[in-house]
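Hey, resending since the last one bounced:
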Amino acid sequence: MGRTAAAMLVLAQLASAAETARERGKRVVNEALDALGGKAYLAMEDRVESGRAYSFWNSRLTGLTIAHIYTRYLAPEPGKVSMRERQSFSKDQSYGVLFNEQGGWEITFRGARELPPARVAQWRDSTLRNIFYILRERLNEPGMDFYSQGADRWEGQPVEIVDITDANGVTVTAYFSALTKLPVRQVFRRRNPEDKMFDTEESSFARYRDLGGVKWPHDIRRTRNGEKIFEIYSDSVKINQSLKDDLFTLPAKMTILPPAK
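The structure tokens again:
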């Protein structure tokens, strides 16, 4: 495998010698989309991920639970998150966290409490920078730029590195396997609203499985400034489950609790 990887890296370097950095970046990103399923990936309407989730503080384990994450895509709208998400981290899936176009809420047996604006803004920013969301929703967005940083190695495997920058100058650096073409890592910097310094957030993706024409990673890890903050190991991922609107909206009769102080 080591010789094969080295040969693939050399061939990639030779093939890209005549390309500009932007041409190469765009090619690598398009190859990643094809590897994820191409038209089938773009046609994915929703997704359900279930498995073990771990949360950390100062790289120390603070929580372990069975997670269920429900995602539904909407028609792309430049500059906005065209996606709804519901996260459940308990056996009772009526509890959890909901994000949609109106905002974000924590849902318990007492009712729904609006999440702090900073947390909603962070979710939206993280979604817009997520490589899988970019490939699904933002590739044709006006002002998107793809700039290749060339070939390298990451965790022993050959990768292609691409800076993806939107019309607002927001950049995420994505790493794609030179062998499978699939995303294996992404990195971006975000200003911390408390101390005004920049945090470096990194995600890595592994254990891809085929979901009937679409590939999706079952192991996802996230770090901030080099410290682990979240991991999920999915036992099951299903797509196109015809998820209904009521899963992503608050019931009309639900009690709305005052914001947390």
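The CA atoms of residues 207 and 218 lie 5 Å apart.

Sorry for the duplicate.
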